[in-house]
Every structure is written in structure tokens, then in C-alpha cells.
Input
Amino acid sequence: MRPYTKIKSLIIGFSFALVMFECNYNPKELVNYKDSNHQFRIEVSKKFGFINYSKTSYGPDEIILENTLLKDCLPALLNKDKSLVQFIDQEKGDLLISAKYENFNKLTYSENSKNGYIKDYEEKTKETKKAFLLELKKALNFIIDEKVSPTDKYFQLIIKDSLRNVNQTRNVKNNKTNNSNITKMPGSLNVDNASIVEIADGLSYLYKEEGKFFAVKNNKNHYTINIKDIPFDQLKTHLEKEIGLSYVPLNEGKSSLRISKIVFNE
Output
């Protein structure tokens, strides 16, 4: 092959690669709106290949999503564990969302209030999430169908005890200094610097025949643990020894969970 032919081939190949890359990150703007109370912008694109950057931020005054999968942001907006949010159409969960929602009714700080704020920070954040979720449902044309599910195959992760041994002290950190790293393979789960919610998600994958794990909410701790070829009847002992976590089954017939089913209107 002549030199100029090689160069031409490289240019064609590079151009094709650029087109493929742009197809992945060519979002469609669904909403761009502003009034006296708030402003919001929502863009959506289809996932193609590897997502090399993603950002989420949820606060009382604004919500920011950048290259965030719908199946990752909806549980956060609903304040639910991932296992309790299910997509009827699994492909819809892989839609990439980029959005910004700003609430002009800012959280007001006051030295005279009990906790420093006129309105509780977490409560205001929930209200902002609810308002943004309403706009997201309209933009993507989906509804959330709440179903009550029996809990015979659900396990709730709990903090068993304080850090009392060497393993727990080494494997549990109270602040997040690095990104979490989770590797899932048949028969094994390797978790590094992960939250309790991420632990639950990994255990649901590894022990899917036994049931689903969930955590009611995150705590400040981040955990490192390796689970490989451990039978289910030995899992609880391993979790307690290594990271001070355990789990309890929810009693069948005596309690239930509300499952949020995401249904798109075609």
C-alpha cells in the first residue's frame, strides 16, 4: 500500500471513529424552561459503548446530572434503593440524562433557627427532587406505578456493631477519599471504598437466587471487602467479621415493600 493510501485510510477511519463518538454524545434537548420560580433543562441521548464521565449532584437549590443513566438517577430522586426501582423496558433504563434544575426559592440561612436553616436541608432537597422528577416524567413520557410486593426474598443490610476488630478498622473508612470500585463476576464480588447501598447492589447480583438485598439509606462509611465462593449460609458471618455489616430477612406476610415500576407511554 502506498503512503498516501495509508494516510487516506487513517483519515477515513479517524473520521468514522469521530462520527461513532458523536452519535453517542449527541443529546436531544427535551426541555428548556424558565419562570419566576425555577428553571430547568433536560437532554437525553442513547447509551453507546463506555461512559467515561458522569456527574450527579442533588441539593435543596439545584439538581445537576451529566451523562447519568436513568436507572441510576431515578432511585436517587425517589430516595429508594436501586432494587426497589424496576423498569418494564430495561433499555429505557440505559438512557443517558444530562439536566440542570434550579429552584429560585433558595434555602434561607438564619442564625436564629434551630439548625441554621429556616427549612430543613434534607426536607428541602426532597421537595426539589420531587419537583424535578415531575418535569422528568413529563419530558420522557413515563409514569411510576407503585406496587406492594411480598418480602420473602428481600434482605435489609444493617450495621451490626461498631468497628471492634482489626479487619473492620482496616476495611471501613468514615470518609470517601477515592472513587468506589466494584468488580462483579460469577461467584465473586470485589468491592473497594463502596457505600452500603453499593454493597447491597453487589450482593443482589452475587446471590440473586436467594433474593434481593437493599439498604434503607446510605451512612457515611465506605467499605472494602472481597467475597469469593462463599456459600449463602456463611455470608452473614463473613460480612460481620470483615466490615461489621449484617442483614435481616423481611418477614413474609408480615411486611411488604413498595416497588416502583417505571412504565413508558409509547
Notes: The radius of gyration is 22 Å. Residues 29-145 form one domain. The chain has two domains: 29-145, 153-249.
